[in-house]
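Subject: design request, 188 residues
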């Protein structure tokens, strides 16, 4: 049975995750509709490519905070794992953009940091290391997800592994076109 507090955590985390910061930033920066530029993805990587480092960093920080804040609120109510999943689902399938959202990486990283700082720093560290080595954002995200899910299974299986696994599957699914390009040597 779903309790009122669980329901409120799911809804609030999903709605927080659904805030399309890329679209909002693009509007205020007067660069146009970000969903019709670059990859069309309303996320930090596309913002970086379309509008530059400054707006890309702002976008990343705001998407990161969506996950972080949602999990902190969820933890306060005893539902941190659920909040992580709902926030990332909100980013990937936002009600405000007719369910056509980003890939969830920044929101996932923020949520992981709030859920368990060791896991969060591990994911961020692996992402950064992979990005510095290869300069491919999607590859960095995929490697970070695999390492984080594996570490969660080994070290924190009973605590939050299934939430990390669920979010990892969703983010990998959202990267399916990137995976195809990576396998064909076409990803940038």
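Subject: RE: design request

Done. Sequence follows.
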């Amino acid at each position: 049975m779903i309790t009122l507090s669980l329901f409120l955590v799911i809804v609030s985390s999903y709605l927080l995750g659904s805030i399309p910061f890329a679209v909002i930033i693009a509007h205020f920066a007067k660069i146009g509709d970000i969903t019709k530029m670059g990859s069309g993805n309303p996320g930090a990587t596309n913002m970086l490519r379309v509008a530059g480092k400054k707006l890309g960093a702002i976008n990343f920080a705001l998407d990161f905070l969506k996950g972080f804040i949602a999990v902190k609120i969820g933890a306060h109510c005893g539902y941190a794992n659920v909040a992580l999943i709902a926030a990332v689902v909100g980013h990937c399938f936002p009600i405000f953009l007719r369910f056509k959202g980003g890939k969830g990486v920044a929101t996932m990283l923020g949520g992981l940091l709030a859920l368990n700082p060791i896991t969060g720093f591990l994911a961020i560290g692996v992402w950064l290391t992979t990005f510095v080595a290869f300069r491919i954002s999607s590859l960095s995200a995929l490697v970070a997800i695999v390492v984080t899910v594996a570490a969660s299974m080994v070290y924190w299986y009973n605590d939050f592994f299934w939430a990390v696994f669920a979010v990892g599957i969703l983010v990998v699914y959202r990267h399916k076109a990137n995976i195809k390009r990576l396998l064909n040597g076409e990803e940038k």
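The first helix runs from residue 4 to 18.
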